[in-house]
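Recall that a protein's primary structure is simply its ordered list of amino acids. Everything else, from secondary elements to tertiary packing, is in principle encoded there. The following example makes that idea concrete.
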Amino acid sequence: MAYTNIDDPSAYFQTALYAGNGTGQTITNDGNSDLKPDFLWFKNRSETVSHTLWDSTRGITKFLVSDSTASEYTNVSGYELTSFNTDGFGLGAHNNAGINQSSSYNYVGWQWKANGGTTASNSDGSITSTVQVNQDAGFSIVTYTGTGSTATVGHGLGVAPSVVLVKSRNEANYWVMYHHNSSSTPQSNYLLLDNNGAMGTFNNYWSSSAPSSTVFGIIGGGYSHNKSNINYVAYCFAEKQGYSKFGKYVGNGNTNGTFIYTGFKPAWVMVKQSNTSRSWQIFDNKRDGYNKDYMPRLQADNNSAEAASAGASMDFVSNGFKVRTDQTGANQSGGTYIYMAFAENPFTTSKGVPCTAR
């Protein structure tokens, strides 16, 4: 069996850096493959402005904010995001700090591919969901309506998801995350993307068992992922060797920090200390500082501008990432950290070609 079925991760994930212009523009990706994004995550790197998250299931007028519990925002068509293009995206003429203010502002757009906006009804669970899925990449966008009673939701991946991230659309409430490495009983744990709180514990929060190859569970009682008649979106991720990894590590409190093996050279990593209050740290391979000095960090639960500090330093190497700080943000001694990571290159391609470090 080949080491990986994904020789070019840029077919499924890419990062775009660009300067705003306030008048409308087209951003074209620079990866080896063309990528038409279905899930877009933007952040103004220069200013204190919220992250905005868009997807092709909900459409170009709808976005959510990762650093807030706010419900879904609706814009006039073409106001901010104008299109999901064959290799990038279009931005509108709205001179707004969110995704395209004037050229003095720098932006990052992280992009994942699903199924080109094509959805299907899924009746695998007790709730009928709408699913847009890319099984090759292990990614699906799922929308459903809560019942308030214990239920299951079909995700379409064909394998059990490692991460499920759920947000209410028409109600202000938390972003809740299931992470398969949060504990030995991850169905009883949850993390909140919109704040820096420690991992929460509630018996069978994701129902009585971990997600299966067809469904994930949602507990009854009106919690933030299953209130009656509330609409939700869920982003579901399954590990794919050589492309994605969703794991955990323990910090050592040393500048010669922990090495985390992923099986690929990372393009994007998000880290969260789960055993105490600590912000979500996001790193990528495009912004300045990669494998030198301090990597610029952005925080999913915080609207702050990009910052480089000793609390956020790591190297991306051919088969994983190496923490290069003794600070608590990513490497407190004895601290438990969960992470999500996506690849720039697999460690070894399907033809046996090895990846080299930067």
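The chain is about 0% helix and 40% strand. The chain has a mean pLDDT of 92.
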